[in-house]
User: What shape does this take?
Amino acid sequence: MTDSIAAPPGDAASLHRSSGGPLERIQHTLHRYPTLSPALVLVLSCLVFAWASDGKFQQPFNLGIMLQQTAVLAVLAVGQTLIILTAGVDLSVGTAMLLTHMVVAKMAADHGVPGVLALALGMVVGLLLGAFHGGIVTKIGLPPFIVTLGTFYIYNSLGLRYGEAQTISKEAIGEDSLLLWTSKRVTWGEFNITAGVLVAIVLYIAFGFVLAKTAWGRHVYATGDDREAARLAGIDVTRVLISVYMVAGFIYAVGAWVQIGRAESASMNAATDINLQTITAVVIGGTSLFGGRGRLTGTLIGALIVTTFTQGLKLSGVDAYWQNFAIGSLILVAVALDQWIRKVAK
Amino acid sequence: MNAATSAVNEPILAARGLVKRFGRVTALGGADLELYPGEVLAVIGDNGAGKSSLIKCLSGAMVPDEGSIELDGAAVTFRRPQDARAAGIETVYQTLAVAPALDIATNIYLGRERRKPGLLGSVFRIVDQSGMRRDAKQALDDLGIGTLQDITQAVETLSGGQRQAVAVARAAAFGSKVVILDEPTAALGVKESGQVLQLIRDLRDRGLPVILISHNMPHVFEVADRIHIQRLGRRAAVVTPASHSMSDAVAIMTGAAVA
Assistant: This one.
């Protein structure tokens, strides 16, 4: 009996002996290593743009610029990844970050609050916004899509009202303020990045570790994979969900910090594309919109792909209108690929 | 054997007069149940007879409005599945309650991950992955399903019988007193069902009493020591495969006969 339970026809033990055709083998490989396909896309697109841009793309200066352009997107995409792993989505991530960064900047500019305190206050604001999302999603049971569609508009309105639709300059914030630390440059010859890029890297290392090595990380995956199963396994899924939204809220504040450094100012009109770009980065990075599967590494690669396409097409002299066409096509391919990979599970 | 066992032993798990109402619907109207050490007790009943409610009360997934539950002779109250689990009652739900995208070892320890010793565990909260993998492998080996070799493969890549085996192994590894199996063979083919029935016998032979909820009469009559027949929210009778035939049991279940 024991022999047969391990080896009914077409079972898992034979998976690794890669039964079936080459296509099936690819499917299983991608299923086991979900970041493989985005990594290939990134490498290939870099090669293509290096060739098509007459060498401008791979200049150290350009590579540094691209990392700087990716920083805010990459930071916010960490929160987006966590939420999408729980089978949710956050449409308000950009405006929530902008609202937070207006609060932080105005505290410094109008009330002379020191950078550390302003930043701490931003964290509190971010956590409250996250708790608000998590509370509505878990206690009232509204779909995250609707909750954050609503708050997307609300935060935009609040941010404009509170900031009086003005731009707060770096002089007003205070050039020595901690808030502008993220604009500090780190230079190796032609290649230079900002401290904001380093903040993003630290965030990826920290949350990559948390997701892979802690029980909380496993519970996030399990909750998104099959919520009822997670509950029956003894996981407090309400707590997991609220904590995920609050972590995303904390990340709004980190994003706000990096954004202030990137723009060297604060304005509600900044980073207008970022809401959807975070979802794009997560999806291209191989994380499933249905929850439960995906890697933070994939999201980082996805964010880099978004910048690579935008900047690469520009340097290659392609009409700017085609940038979104390329990104859009990539999303469709990525999601179709995800659906196909999931069929391994039948 | 029924009479002899009940006379000598105290039940390990007993429910008395459980009542559960949903609005004007009474799911349980004073249901009793006794499970004795070392037995497989099957629970059968028509749809709506209150099988699921009864089992959910015993596994902590539902809180009864009235009645009491005793484990090893002591009164217990289960408010959440965790409470029952902490008391040593493990349940394998019909849906298996496994996370398909996670691997076998992670699933076996899901919800009760072990942390590494020392600062790594207490401050950085790192889980003891290698230790859990080793012990998960051991748990599978103990049940003679060690041939499920790659403990790191995702549960969704397993066949139905193998998934059931993982869920049963999880229950067996942590269930110190009672294992409850809800329709474990419902989704399985003939061969895989046979394997799961053998797992149930193995559990009993290791000294773990089992409650088996099933619609499948041949399976029930194949492994059960006693059969609890639930009808209209109460226990209608307890029979044994020796004393009653399948058609007798069905007759009691449907109300065509009294025990």
Remarks:
- Residues 1-88+175-259 of chain B form a domain with the Rossmann fold fold (CATH 3.40.50.300).
